Amino acid sequence: MAVIRCLLVALALLTAGLAQGAAIEVREFDDPVLEKRYESLTASMRCPTCQNQAINDSDAPVSGDMRDRVYLLLQEGRSDMEIRDHMVQRFGDYILYNPRFEGRTYLLWGLPAALVVAGGILVMLLVRTRRNASVRALSDEERRRLETLINRGEGQ
Amino acid sequence: MTRRLLLLLPLLGFLLLLLFLYLGLGLNPFHRESKLVEESRAFPAFELTTLEDPEQRVDESLMPGEVTLVNVWGEWCPECKREMPQLLDLADRGVRLVGVNWKDTRDKAQGFLEEFGDPFEVNIFDPEGELAFELGVYGAPESFLVDRDGIIRYHHTGYISPSDLREHILPEVEKWQ
User: 3-state DSSP call for residue A112?
Assistant: First the structure.
């Protein structure tokens, strides 16, 4: 029963996906470079009304308008940077899947790198203290203590 | 003893992360500050006609002079019907309202106003969504408060409930008046 239900849900999701795919227009480009840029631009912008869909994957009206605008600006010869700026000016930083590197995103971009560096330093320090500890020979007192411990074990 | 305490450091870090993520869970994913408010931008330039008269052209010079609530709506938008009583209330209190009729037809939009009331001084007819795009509108209804210098000061996404009106809209109107 559960298996059938699972299959039905999967089928429903699949057909929903197909229906949505069909709603997105196909655009003709004379220049293959422009076409590639159009694809990568629309894949890198998040639809403002959907929770997590790129505008090339969403049939929300606003995504359609944004695709139209990207197409128009590409035809006008604007650069990728200008097109992203154009959208951010209107819809905010939210729409960028890759936030730009600026004042308030230093932490976001910098933290992973900082953590890797900190982890590396930590490992280095640990290795160094271990190595120092192992090379050091036992002092006389430590040797005596070791002996008594061993003897006690044998005595039992 | 201090070495022992150092061992607790990773746990502390983990608890901090947990707190951070927990606070994130409580955020409203639909709430976003409008870029136009963030940068205190002037109402964007546009040139369209009014809903009432296809011959009457309007542009951004409509805005400055008085604190104005610009409401983006459409006949096709069910939430817009629900917020009409609140908008009529605002108009009764003497607040100036300008509508942006978004992706609609004149007939349907005029029918809507006849049925649900018309709190707007004027309606900008924006069938292609040109002005709405400039405003960064992504769903109706959305409202923008424009101050007397024509600067956008406040943004409300979605339906304005009676409590939104009391707690957010009216205080903002007062603040900029």
Answer: helix
